[in-house]
Amino acid sequence: MTTILLIEDDHRIRESIARALAEEGYAVKTEREGMEGLKAAVEEETDLVVLDLGLPDMDGRQVIKLIRAVSEVPVIVATARDDQEEIVRLLDLGADDYVVKPYNAKHLEARIRAVLRRIGGEESAVVTVGGLVIDQDAHEARLDGRLLDLAAKEFDMLAYLATNVGKMISKREILAQVWRLPYGGADKTVDVHLSWLRRKLGETAAEPRYIHTRRGVGVKLVDPTT
Ligand code: CA
Fold it and tell me: What are the beta bridge partners of residue 59?
């Protein structure tokens, strides 16, 4: 469940927004002051912060700066002023997005989804399966910290299997997804690359760890550490 921290000193706004977000399926924590909000923002379970800029004890800009000093948790600021220069300053301080007050819960929720999608998309470039770490942006894979020397198709195949971890994938699907080839008797290509990949992962078909094949069905990548 996604946990939203709402830092807002106005009782009515806080209650109504918290209720609306809870109805949308979010876990919601609320705080009324900057210092308490800051503490809650850096807690592990907080996935996103909605921060009112006008707080009784601290300036909201200061709260953003302090959050950013220790955390990358996404922050959406709620500003009373629709002032472009002010908004640019807030984004420069590290806010991820903003809503202008008065805002409604539906609008805020759309901004929350957009920010989480953006953040989530960045994170998904790195896939971890047990001791395997596959970085799709860098086109690098490591096993137990050691960089693997993989050919392009070996990497692509590993990355595809890793994003479908635990799922049996047919050779036809691998040919289509990795080689962009329709099925046509070229499944030996997959077998050959699988055997090379296996060797580079230090395992064999007889004693598989990460790569498990089933004759006539396909192949799957599993986490041998679980
Ligand atoms: Ca306020």
Answer: 54
> Residue 47 Cα, ligand 1 centroid: separation in angstroms?
22
Cα distances (Å, whole numbers) of residue 65 to 45, 118, 159: 20, 21, 37
**How distant, in Å, are the alpha carbons of 141, 161, 179, 183, 196 from that of 174?**
19, 9, 7, 9, 15
Supply the pLDDT for residue 203.
Answer: 96
Place of tokens 């890793």: 162
Give distance in angstroms: CA of 102 to centre of ligand 1: 11
pLDDT of 55-88, one tens digit each?
999 999 999 999 999 999 999 999 987 778 888 8
Which CATH number among 3.30.390.30, 3.90.550.10, 3.40.50.2300, 3.40.30.10 corresponds to the domain 3-118? 3.40.50.2300
| E strand intervals along 130-175 | 132-135, 140-143, 146-147
